[in-house]
Amino acid sequence: MSDELDKSPIGVGDPHVPEAAWELYREAARGTPIEPGDDRLDILQALTLVVPDPQRGGAPVPAEPRRVERALTSRYIEEVRAAAETLARLPSLMDRVDDEFERASNSFSGGGVDLVEYYEDINARLARASDAAQVECLTSHPGRRAPERIMVTKERDKALLERGIGIRTLYAEVNRKDSWTRGWVEMVTTFPAEPGALVRTSDFPPIKMIIFDRTEAFLGRYLPNGELGEGSWHVRHPGVVSLLVESFNVHWRLATPWTPGVQAPSDAADGEGRNGSMPFLDNDPRLLSILWGLSSGDGRDRVASLHTMSVKTLDKHLAALKLAMGAQTLFELGYKFGRYVERHGLDD
Predict the structure, then answer these.
(1) Structure confidence by residue, pLDDT tens digits, 128-158
(2) Which residue in 265, 297, 69, 57 sits closest to 176, CA to CA?
(3) Other Cβ atoms within 10 Å of 289 Cβ, number
(4) Chain-centroid distance, C-alpha 133
(5) Nearest to 301 by CA among 309, 212, 130, 47
(6) pLDDT digits (tens, 9 = 90+) for 224-283
(7) Structure pTM?
(8) What does the pLDDT read at residue 262?
């Protein structure tokens, strides 16, 4: 078989006919018997240049030229129509290609931290983590929760409680006024299961996150300007998850319990009186000065020196302040003093 025949199309395409096939065409026109299985015959038949002649027992004979033209024109028009339909579907195909390429290119994976871009992928991972949880679920919501998000998580939280998984949730204080959030709190905190759910609110809750069994966490994807972007970080690195749990627990200790039907504790929990004052500070400017010094970043040695007292004496004052303000640590004491300063405009 010649190289020319190897390169010749069989079927609709470039209507190129190699010289060897034309030679067979001329033989057919002269009535020369043609052996079946000849590759040249396949080319001629594919382009309808020859057709079987019933009067000669189906032997191939050249087709009338106008018949060839009509057949090939019709076939090529159909081919063009099919190609046009394919081209019309190309934009949607490329949209999917772009999405898949971006998903693969933007994914960050390594060291137990994945950036999950798409909502359905995040939900799938959350569902798997929730189903695998055995002990507890910690969640933090620093802003208002949209009603649709509450509805999505309601069944998942209910399933956790039914399996005996404890839930602790931190909300921003503003959510106490939201009816959707109040309904969710009512549902989880009164659910008849142990250990149940606990909810607290804070003026400054931690970042948006969900932690399962202290082994994996989902974090909001914060942009450089501090706003939440699309996607979520899925963290499984033990050290990072431990830091997130500790951050949650620090904020939890500073937060106010939210029990349905019970009014939030007054500011007296921070040592303030009904008029918002702190009598032990109002009556002892030195204590106020000590707190100012610590909140400004001065160490205990410097604060003690500025107030002409020993560090041991300073520690006694700090212990009294922590007791009076309901704080367990210096960090918590500083936080509550910061709230006092903010409410009374002392930093203006």
Answers:
(1) 999 999 999 999 998 888 888 888 888 899 9
(2) 265
(3) 14
(4) 19
(5) 309
(6) 777 778 889 999 998 899 989 988 988 888 888 887 765 554 444 444 443 444 555 656
(7) 0.48
(8) 53
Quote the percentage of the chain above a pLDDT of 70: 82
Backbone angles phi, psi at 197, to 5 degrees: -130, 145
Beta strand pairing call for 216-222 and 228-235: antiparallel
What token pair was written down for 43? 């080319």
- pLDDT at 8 exceeding the cut of 50: no
Q: 113 near 237, Cβ under 8 Å?
A: yes
Residue 196: exposure state from Cβ atoms within 10 A (0-12, 13-18, ≥19): middle
In terms of Cα–Cα distance, which of 196, 116, 184 is closest to 144? 184
- What integer pLDDT is reported at residue 127 of this predicted model? 92
Question: For position 128, what pLDDT does the model report?
Answer: 93
3-state secondary structure the chain: CCHHHHHCCCCCCCCCCCHHHHHHHHHHHCCCCCCCCCHHHHHHHHCCCEEEEHHHCCEEEECCHHHHHHHHHHHHHHHHHHHHHHHHHHHHHHHHHHHHHHHHHHCCEECCEEEECCHHHHHHHHHHHHHHCCCEEEEEECCCCCHHHHHHHHHHHHHHHHCCCEEEEEEEHHHHHCHHHHHHHHHHHCCCCCCCEEEEEECCCCCCEEEECCCEEEEEEECCCCCEEEEEEEECCHHHHHHHHHHHHHHHHHCEECCCCCCCCCHHHHCCCCCCCCHHHHCCHHHHHHHHHHHCCCCHHHHHHHCCCCHHHHHHHHHHHHHHHCCCCHHHHHHHHHHHHHHHCCCC
Q: Is the pLDDT of residue 114 over 90?
A: no
The span from the CA of 222 to the CA of 207, in Å, is 9
For residue 118, what are its two tokens? Answer: 């798409």
Question: What one-letter code names the amino acid at 53?
Answer: D
